[in-house]
Fold this protein.
Amino acid sequence: SALTITVNPMEKYEQPHQAEE
Amino acid sequence: FKEVPGPCDPEDLLDGVIFGAKYLGSTQLVSERNPPTSVRMAQAQEAVDRIKAPEGESQPMTEVDLFVSTQRIKVLTADTQEAMMDHPLQTISYIADIGSIIVLMARRKLPRRTEASGEKRLYKMICHVFHSADAQLIAQAIGQAFSVAYQHFLQVNSIDPSQLRLRQQGHSPEDEELYNGDLAHFSKQENCKEVCIQKQKGEILGIAIVESGWGSILPTVVIANLMHGGPAEKSGELSIGDRLMSVNGTSLVGLPLSTCQSIIRDLKHQTEVTLSIVHCPPVTTAIIRRPDSKYQLGFCVENGIICSLMRGGIAEKGGIRVGHRIIEINGQSVVATPHEKIIQILTQAVSEVHIKTMPASTYRLLTGQEQPIFL
């Protein structure tokens, strides 16, 4: 079966501090 | 948010929706910030390969509830509703689904000391793998949550979505790296070989050749047909699609078809011919990354045959060649499809468009529409 990818458009706007440490 | 398509009521996603699933496990990968789709696909596949038990072995799994909202995604134990994982939605990089498997990719920043100056910032990806009969539905619901959260973000920040149409899709095609299956194929030593063919003096080799097509990374002729019972066929070493690099030490790379034909014709009086070839399948695959139907595909098609290519366009980058016939688009055969329908399929195709092609003349020879000129 096909592999489908859905990218989070918010990924572009994520600020460094938002990434989980 | 009513405009956002998906399996859920967008209003419900504000509060959160729960899906039952089986948690198979988690793994970690290191990734750059916004990798292209092909890299994400490989990452998702890698995560599944690491987590999935080998065939024949039992797969450990835990019943969980997946909580999906526009704020966060939580994995709760099904019985106690205790949160096993909790990721803010903006740290979810992407969701992948394949069959009944879902892969959730959440980002964690690597500590600064691991970054070399001037290099791209790398992220640790936590990949959670789940199984569910509703995998596609769950992935669509998460995708819908992404869109609702994104619309909300744009509204809050008074950003006009029409100004962002191209950015929100991920990479701009101008930034995309070149995809060329050929490049990987030609660089593998095992695909290149020398073939020595014995024949009678005055006998022809028994091959028909065609051009590889403009846009091809290796401009040299391709074997389009083998004469039945001829020395080339009898050698058992050649097949349709193989690229001819040189004959008896004379390079054919970059030469016009007619010159290649006369070089091969001149071998008639030899009794031994050494061909340097790259073994290739008769059909080549091009992958065009088109974030949006607003982007020109960058090639023209007439009756299923690619007749022109835009230099630097997404089609050229994806490996489309002039003079090739389109055989398949996204796994769907188009050999018997009317021109208008092919145009319609191509016009609507977005994201990653997989196109299988072969030189039009090879196709005509294989389908008996044209008689081969054997050399």
Residues 165-177 of chain B have pLDDT under 50 and may be disordered.
